[in-house]
Amino acid sequence: MDSNRRMEGKVAVVTGGGSGIGRAAAVRLAQHGARVCILDLGEKRAAEAEEEIRAAGGDAFVVDVDVSDPARVEGGIGEAVKRYGRLDFVFANAGINGKLAPIEDLSPDDWDNTITTNLKGTFLAVKYAIPHLRQEGGSITITSSINGNRTFSMFGASAYSTSKAGQVAFMQMAALELARYKIRVNAICPGAIATNIDQTTSKDPMLKKIEIPVHYPEGAQPLERGPGSAEQVADLVLFLASDESSHITGTAIYIDGAESLLHG
Ligand code: NAD
User: Fold this and answer.
1) Ligand 1 in contact with 41 (CB < 6 A)?
2) I need a labelling partner for 129 at 20 to 30 A (CA). Which of 17, 77, 83, 195 fits?
3) Whose CA is nearest to atom 10 of ligand 1?
4) Closest ligand 1 atom to the C-alpha of 147?
5) Which residue's CA is the nearest one to ligand 1's atom 33?
6) Ligand 1 pocket: which of 117, 124, 141, 143 to mutate (most atoms <8 Å of CB)?
7) What is the 3-state secondary structure (H, E, C) of the chain?
8) 41 CB contacts (<8 Å, ≥6 apart)?
9) 248 C-alpha to center of ligand 1: Å?
10) How far is CA 208 from CA 201, 211, 244, in A?
């Protein structure tokens, strides 16, 4: 076995694997030998991610899943196990920015949409993976954010930040609970990463009334003076998926080029 292929023989489920961080992680995991099941909304982009992995000699397939739908999440994870015979790693990553608005202008439906996709979606991916992961142990990584944990300056993102803080609390509960099954659970907290997430952002015009102007003339990311790449985050996901992180569980890891220390 090529020891550089750190996921050889392993099976991974990646939610939101059709774009951005999820797609880069799916590609990286497959490059390291994992067979990958992508759960994403039935989009052209998810099919392209599958195609990219196959073109490079990897193995992947897509299941059309809305992560907020319990039956579809359970079914999607079941498809992965049916096709590949096991489950080793779950990347609970799908998420949206959702509606950004002052709290008094944010509708209950907009609140629910963000919390349901980001937080309930995480719970469902973890819940339905447990029966499979506990067979031989495994790893779960949840994509949280600097927002809601170290920084609170994404104005209007009260629902988003709450979902991201909730994911870290949930991760810690799950890490303790699932240790008995040798399932490790960690969260990653990216800063600004160049992806398509802005397409899921809707800004309310009333935002102007709550914004506090903050300007860093030399950029908000001290390390690289710009957003990180999805591929940089994928390297961390691979590490947390692989046995190289065998003693790491219950931890939130920041990947932001020190952005959150400046913004905190
Ligand atoms: P992205 O929009 O490029 O990718 C998100 C993927 O999730 C898309 O393929 C989308 O179709 C999928 N998705 C969204 N809602 C879904 C649903 N209900 N069911 C199934 N799939 C769904 O965005 P990204 O930046 O790669 O976001 C991935 C994660 O990273 C999110 O949880 C986000 O909160 C987090 N994050 C992103 C940044 C950033 O700057 N990009 C920073 C911190 C955290």
Assistant:
1) yes
2) 195
3) 16
4) 43
5) 95
6) 143
7) CCCCCCCCCCEEEEECCCCHHHHHHHHHHHHCCCEEEEEECCCHHHHHHHHHHHHCCCEEEEEECCCCCHHHHHHHHHHHHHHHCCCCEEEECCCCCEEECCHHHCCHHHHHHHHHHHHHHHHHHHHHHHHHHCCCCEEEEEECCCECCCECCCCCCHHHHHHHHHHHHHHHHHHHHHHHHCEEEEEEEECCEECCHHHHEEECHHHHHCCCCCCCCCCCCCCCCCCEEHHHHHHHHHHHHCHHHCCCCCCEEEECCCHHHHHC
8) 18, 64, 65, 66
9) 24
10) 16, 5, 46
CA-nearest residue, atom 19 of ligand 1? 66
Residue 2: the pLDDT is 60
Q: What is the pLDDT of residue 3?
A: 63
CA-CA-CA-CA torsion sign (166, 187, 136, 232): positive
What residue's CA is closest to ligand 1, atom 39? 193
Structure token digits, residue 67: 């992560």
- List of the chain residues with pLDDT < 50: 1
Helices 20-31 and 44-55 pack at an angle, to 10 degrees, of 20
Catalytic residues: 160
Q: Is 149 in the pocket of ligand 1 (CB under 6 A)?
A: no
Q: Are 251 and 186 in contact (CB under 8 A)?
A: yes
- Tell me the C-alpha to C-alpha distance, in Å, between residue 170 and each of 28, 183, 185, 251, 257: 26, 14, 10, 11, 25
Encoded amino acid at 97, one letter: N
What's the burial of 137, exposed, middle or buried (CB within 10 Å: 0-12/13-18/19+)?
A: middle
* Residue 143 alpha carbon to ligand 1 centre in Å: 9
